[in-house]
Amino acid sequence: MFSYAIGVDLGGTNLRIAAVDENGKLLEKLSTATDLTHGRDAVIAEMTQAIRRLLDKFQGQGESRGVGIGVPGIIDMDTGMLRESPNLPGWSEFPVHAEIERRLGIPVMLENDANAACLGEKWLGAGKDYQSMCMLTLGTGVGGGIVLDGKIWHGMNGMAGELGHINVEPEGHPCKCGSRGCVEQYASATAVVRMAREAIAGNLSKELARAAEDAGKEFDSRHVYQLAMKGDAATQQIFRRVGRALGIMLADVVNALNLPIYVIGGGVASAWDAFAPTMMEEIRKRSFVYAATVPEGPRPAKPNKSTLITMAQLGSDAGLYGAAYLPLQRAGVKSGNAKL
Amino acid sequence: MFSYAIGVDLGGTNLRIAAVDENGKLLEKLSTATDLTHGRDAVIAEMTQAIRRLLDKFQGQGESRGVGIGVPGIIDMDTGMLRESPNLPGWSEFPVHAEIERRLGIPVMLENDANAACLGEKWLGAGKDYQSMCMLTLGTGVGGGIVLDGKIWHGMNGMAGELGHINVEPEGHPCKCGSRGCVEQYASATAVVRMAREAIAGNLSKELARAAEDAGKEFDSRHVYQLAMKGDAATQQIFRRVGRALGIMLADVVNALNLPIYVIGGGVASAWDAFAPTMMEEIRKRSFVYAATVPEGPRPAKPNKSTLITMAQLGSDAGLYGAAYLPLQRAGVKSGNAKL
Predict the structure, then answer these.
(1) pTM recorded for the entire structure
(2) Is the ipTM of this complex over 0.85?
(3) Beta strand A81-84 pairing with A142-148
(4) B112: which chain A residues are within 8 Å (Cβ-Cβ)?
């Protein structure tokens, strides 16, 4: 009999629920749009029904190790309340953990979505050969997660890993967190679109203006990336700003934590070719710890001896796998080298 | 029979060696100037002779748990080599760990001095009620140390905790690490003196110019602090820059690690009154994790529930105690609530 767990990725846009076995094999996946219009309780009802359906389906075949749920927001680990959740309006200061457990009648583990994504990449993705890593998820915002010695580092009350708010420009663009110049203001999909609109307003690129007009409300960071790849100079400059911000921020984390691997995922990570050269240049210049631990010349990186900065491997499923891994890890299922 | 250990703080200026018992009681302390003029081998010989003297003295009375040595430089934990050590010229790329063990004939534990100071404050100082903390040492440079779950976080190869090189001004003052605008360039004693000389060159303060002239070559950050406390506006502005840099940097670390306590030590920490108001203002503004975890109004901070930013308590002995604690900790001696 195999062990398995249910992982849930509750996003502001999509609700995805999967049964995953102890080796990381996907047994079944359900995806729906997150319908926030009928309110919080309707979303929780739909989620708990889908979880129940999967649990019923595999009953008798596999041994359930539990349920892990990734949510977009800061979770107070002491109370199971969401402290902040801009993408789930009306959910903050709500005892989401208790309510889900009440409806399911079994214990669940709640985790910040970016932390879950980091754990997923550690279990089955870019970090599977490492015990410690950090991950940035470049999406609507910039999420962060830190895994130390195999476990998510929560800090004092579950708020650790907010790497999107590391400062890269003290008097830079205002951030909704209250600061200015957080890396999120230069490396998120939202920031890429903002910088593109700034370039259009400054008459810096006709191509970009045309692309924005053609796309209308659908204009997003992928359009900007496509133009950069076609060689549009002003658009390439935007991704150099992305790379610079990421490089400053990663240099800070390398200097502070000396981790073996830093993983970049989320939608904007697909623009790797456009931002990575500047990012790597900044890190090399700004972190002597990086410079001292990067393999020279053609020598391949040795796991846990050299610093590796690399793309995520699990795409948008990282958080789903990470959420499923939460109860498996608690149950003592070993990680590492399991292949998808 | 009591347990004890030998702690060594090998600085570029002073060599201090102490026998400390398992409760943190200082049994004996030897201090000499570090005489670098006769070379590395002479310093190591003097140090190992003094260690041997203390070990001989307490033989029969107490059980030695070993020797811990704090050194000013980056230690490669795999090889026991100093990677960089600006204050010990000629020591880098030298197998200092192996050489000391060879001379003493017993195993020793080598640690970066700022890490040792952090561990000392965790054992007996400001962090003694906490399991995780970080410490900044504002001296000639800005040293950093991170203790997680009771142990120094070394990272992949012992280079973690280089918090002095977290960026606070991307195009700021050049740092010898190769970057620009590291917090060390605004919050070290060296930086305070540099900013004072800049203010003098800019004709911003006659008081400061006079103090610098009077002190001559002895002019240091304490003179600057004294003027700030006397109300000299240009000098106060220097400490606001110190506070701003520390605030930006600490906000980064709070957002990343969500630790319960951040401790500031080293010579410049005595200027707390002059820089702390600006520092706290910056942290509050720039870290929503801090803002969410700071006690409101007159409520006292609860250990491990609220974020505390505070002065170190052990002064220049922090590193000595921390070095002694290294072998005691390895031997399983419990920390916490031991009083000096």
Answers:
(1) 0.94
(2) yes
(3) unpaired
(4) none
